[in-house]
């Protein structure tokens, strides 16, 4: 599935818009710091999907549902539309040990490289590998 998403040439790419990518990143940080719903370890906001590595503090319906609901509402406001934003389903996986944690973290942060969107994980602006700040802006990022 990831390969299809990473190399898709058609379909919605709303997350490519900096304002929406920043919104999603801010919501991820808020889920951790403001609402204490999860501990955020790694993330990447790709043009048409998001990868997260989190340790939840509450059941998924209490952190993922609000995250998807809030970001869908505000993204649709930005896009001036009323339509589904996220797919209904999501994929989760239990991390069983440190080795698997490191593998998943690396997979997430290298996703833009694998998809041909960046030369290195740090080059992709919407990733924990870049050291994106809670404002959703990479260090030194200057909007045009």
Summarize this structure as a short list of keywords or feature phrases:
Alpha-Beta Plaits; 2 strands; 144 residues; alpha+beta; two-stranded antiparallel sheet
Please, how many domains?
1
Q: How are the strands of the biggest sheet laid out side by side?
A: 1-2
Q: Can you count the helices?
A: 4
- Give the tally of β-strands: 2
List segments where confidence is low: pLDDT < 50 over at least 5 consecutive residues: 138-144
| Biggest beta sheet summary | 2 strands, antiparallel
Q: What is the second-level CATH architecture?
A: 2-Layer Sandwich
Percent strand: 5-15%
Distance between the termini: 34 Å
Mean model confidence by pLDDT: 87
CATH topology description: Alpha-Beta Plaits
Radius of gyration: 15 Å
Topology order in helix (H) and strand (E) letters:
HHEEHH
CATH first level? Alpha Beta
Helical fraction equals 40-55%
Find the CATH superfamily.
Transposase IS200-like
Name the shape in a single word. Answer: globular
Return the structural class: alpha+beta
Task: Explain how this protein is built.
- With 144 residues, this protein is of the alpha+beta class.
- It has one domain: Alpha-Beta Plaits, CATH 3.30.70.
- The chain contains four helices and two strands; from the N terminus they run ααββαα.
- The protein has a two-stranded antiparallel sheet with strand order 1-2.
- Helix 2 runs antiparallel to helix 3.
- The longest helix is centred in the middle third of the chain and has 20 residues.
């Amino acid at each position: 599935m990831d390969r299809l998403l990473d190399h898709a040439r058609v379909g919605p790419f709303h997350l490519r818009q900096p304002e929406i990518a920043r919104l999603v990143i801010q919501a991820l940080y808020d889920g951790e710091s403001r609402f204490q719903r999860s501990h955020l370890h790694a993330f990447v906001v790709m043009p048409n999907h998001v990868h997260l590595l989190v340790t939840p503090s509450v059941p998924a319906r209490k952190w993922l549902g609000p995250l998807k609901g809030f970001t869908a509402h505000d993204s649709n406001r930005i896009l001036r539309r009323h339509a589904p934003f996220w797919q209904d389903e999501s994929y989760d996986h239990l991390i069983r040990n440190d080795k698997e944690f490191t593998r998943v973290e690396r997979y997430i942060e290298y996703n833009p490289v694998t998809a041909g969107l960046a030369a290195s994980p740090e080059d992709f602006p919407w990733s924990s590998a870049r050291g994106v700040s809670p404002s959703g802006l990479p260090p030194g990022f200057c909007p045009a």
